[in-house]
Predict the structure.
Amino acid sequence: MGDDAKKIAVIVTDRQSEALRMSLGLTIEGDAISVFNCGAPIERTDEVNTNIDGLDMMECQLFSVNEVDEGFATITMQEIPAKLLEYDHIVSY
Amino acid sequence: MSKLGILVNTDKYGDDIVGVVKAARQAGHEVTIFMMDDGVLLAPELSKACSGDAQLSYCDHSAEPRGVKDVEGVTAGSQYQNAVMMHEADRVVVF
Amino acid sequence: MKILHIIKEFTESGTADVVIEDHQNLGQDVTIFRLKEDRDYAKLVDLIFQNDKVATW
């Protein structure tokens, strides 16, 4: 990751598959991407799993308010606002 | 000159996007728009209203199943254009 | 830190409410711009660049 890497937070509340596809795409320029799932548990499809695997491979941070979201670190909704202050861009989906 | 990135992922806010683009250009900012998901449905409208004021692209993966193609003044691209926009923008808004 | 929260016309997300309230409680300098009530785009663009961070909901 270069010195000019940006920190980007993607907030997922709906359209999970597209949000995750976009998140993986954002890694292309070497930025540090974190995903916060604030909505329903992630619906696992082949495409979703592929994108989550890719995000994992790119060392993105994955957080979810749902304990059942495998591969995501559990976070409470109350912890998210303070964390968002660390990011250059906050992108809600 | 500061750079504004606009991610368009719905088709609900065409008027707001045009308003922001015009105001940003008036204030001397550079504007880039990337459309994906249902946002690609705004490509013809934004092309007409903003092509002289903003750099426009869309995700072809979203456009193709929605029947959007060959929109004048809009680059048919991929998530790469979004990554570049986010990386280079000073501020990003989402519509 | 100066934070701008832009609320779009059709946003129903409770997530935005939680984040905005917490940012206020954390002592951040929070500005809320509701597009349903105010369409002064020149003012919005000024706010976008005057604030350190922007979140659109």
